């Protein structure tokens, strides 16, 4: 299905978030925060099935020219081949979740995934329907028995960071800030705490030019900024952007995110039908409308790194979600370029 979105179109308020104009085409109502740009933005959104319960963790692999991502609760991993336009998927024996996926540097067909309370190395050729566990990197201790891993990503120096949250089986993660942000140390095989008292650890992004790290806590609905020392430890945490304007609930919350070559953040808005582009001056400069309510994460990809891939969820949380909810969306014509995503460096 092809979807054409244009922020300068006029659609009546009664049309709702989207108005069907013809088969396979949707126009988006221009709503949300104002943008600084006066240019008439036009971009295109293509749908990439299948429709997942909770799509997450998009990672663009330059060498393979493929997008990797996960279906979190079904513990499935996916690869969308750019040249073939085809999706391959695999299950992993012995796992309960797949919360993120990142390639291992120098190890063909090896990836790190998050599985409930374990970090695992798995092997997958990107085609077979089954992947296998190679080894366990680390696990959460007994004091973290009621938490699980969530989003994870690799910094420009090959170090893995991953956050946790209250397990859904243990309660409402929006009500208990028991999550921790960890850095995995490959020299010791240990998880090193970077920050704590998180509700729902989510989006991660690095600005290498300024040596700053950005991190989303979905429950607090804000983005924090950190300084980074030479060992990769995060310091001086402060709230950089609060989505609760004047303390008011906007009706959606920040989820995953990525960063472009100019330092702009692209923040997925769960329950918001959109991705926000926030510039380094903390201003929303563009809103990309997505034809799915539960937008989960973002990643730049494509041969020129100028395409934005957006994962979504079809999970029935407060109401049933209809297709194309749960698909991956490919947004082109956005006038920006991303940064190459990183592979995790592990010792033999």
From TrEMBL:
A divalent metal cation binds at residues 56, 202, 255. Residues 54-313 form the SMP-30/Gluconolactonase/LRE-like region domain. GO terms for cellular component: cytoplasm. It catalyses: D-glucono-1,5-lactone + H2O = D-gluconate + H(+). The active site is at 255 (proton donor/acceptor). Its cofactor is Mn(2+); Ca(2+); Zn(2+); Mg(2+). Its main location: cytoplasm. Binds 1 divalent metal cation per subunit. Its EC number is 3.1.1.17. Gene3D superfamilies: TolB, C-terminal domain. GO terms for molecular function: calcium ion binding; gluconolactonase activity. Keywords: Calcium, Cytoplasm, Hydrolase, Metal-binding, Zinc. It is found in: Cytoplasm. Belongs to the SMP-30/CGR1 family. This is Regucalcin.
